[in-house]
Amino acid sequence: MHRRIDNGMAGSGIKYLVNYDVNQESNGYSVTMRPTQSTAYQEGLIGKFDVPSFSPNDLQNTIRNGSVFFKFEIDSKYGVDSVAANFKRLSKKARRGNIITNRDQNVPFEFKAVPYRDGSKTVIEVVIFAAETSENTFDFGILEKEIKENRLIFIETQIEEDKILIYIKDNAGGVPLDFLDRIFEPYFSTKHKSQDTGLGLYMSHQIITNSFKGSIVVHNEEYKKFKALLCA
C-alpha cells in the first residue's frame, strides 16, 4: 500500500509491503494481511516534498474504510412500479443512486426493476463496507449475509364481534426494552436526526386511537409483534 505527495512528475511517499494469506472457510474466504516492511522516499529537483504521514494505524484505517461491490437479483410477484416505489420510500436519494442506513453507516446502492414473468426482477448493486468484528478483524461479508437472510413480515387479521384485530410481526430482532415505552412518542427515534423524524409510529398511534377509537400496543416475543385494535 502506498501514500504519495507529488506535483505530477516528482514527489515523496511511503510504501508498505503487505503479505497476505487467503484461506477458504465454510462461509467464504478470509484474508490475513501482515505489514512486513515500510519504505520512505523523497524526490524533487529543487525542493523535495516531505514524506506524508502514513502510520500502521493509518494503514489499518485504510483497510477498515475499504469497500467492495456486491451485485444480486430479487424476484418479486409485484409489478415494477410497486417495487420501485418501495425502494424509493425506504431509501434516500443520493447524488448517484440511493442510500440506505446499515449499522449506523450510509450504504450507497443502485437498483433497476424490470418486468419478469408475472411480477418483476430487481437487480441491485450495493457498496459493502467492512465491519470490525473483533480487534484487527474486518468482515466485508456482514451486509451480504444480512441481505441473503430471510426477512419476514407476517400480517394476520381477525374479527371479534364489532372489532377488527390486526397482528403485524417480523423477525427483525425486536425492540430494545429501553425503547418499548417510548416508541409512540413524537420525534422519538433510534436513528440520527438527519435520517429520521420519529413521527411514523406516533402518527400511526394517533390515527388508530383518535380516528378509529382503537388501540395499538407492542411487545417482544419470538418475533416483534404489533397489535392494532380497530373498533368497527
Q: Which features characterize this protein?
A:
elongated, 48% strand, disordered C terminus, 14 strands, 232 residues, 4 helices, alpha+beta
Describe the structure.
This protein has 232 residues and is α+β, with helices and mostly antiparallel strands. It folds into three domains: 2-64, no CATH class; 67-148; 153-231, Heat Shock Protein 90 (2-Layer Sandwich), CATH 3.30.565. 17% of the residues lie in helices and 48% in strands. The protein has helices spanning 56-64, 80-90, 142-148, 200-211; strands at 2-6, 11-25, 28-42, 67-76, 92-93, 98-102, 105-116, 119-129, 131-134, 137-139, 153-160, 163-170, 215-220, 224-231. The strands form four sheets. The protein has a five-stranded antiparallel sheet. The protein has a four-stranded antiparallel sheet with strand order 11-12-14-13. A three-stranded antiparallel sheet has the order 1-2-3, with no helix packed on it. The longest helix has 12 residues, at 200-211. The protein is elongated and about 90 Å long. Residues 223-232 have low confidence and may be disordered.
Estimate the helix proportion, in percent.
10-25%
Q: State the separation between the terminal residues, measured CA to CA.
A: 67 Å
Gross geometry: elongated
How many separate helices?
4
Q: What count of domains describes the coordinates?
A: 3
Sheet with most strands: 5 strands, antiparallel
What is the N-to-C succession of helices and strands?
A: EEEHEHEEEEEEHEEHEE
Mean pLDDT: 78
User: If you compute it from the alpha carbons, what radius of gyration comes out, rounded to the nearest whole angstrom?
Assistant: 25 Å
The structure class reads: alpha+beta
Poorly predicted residue ranges? 223-232
User: What strand order characterises the main sheet?
Assistant: 4-8-7-6-5
Strand content: over 45%
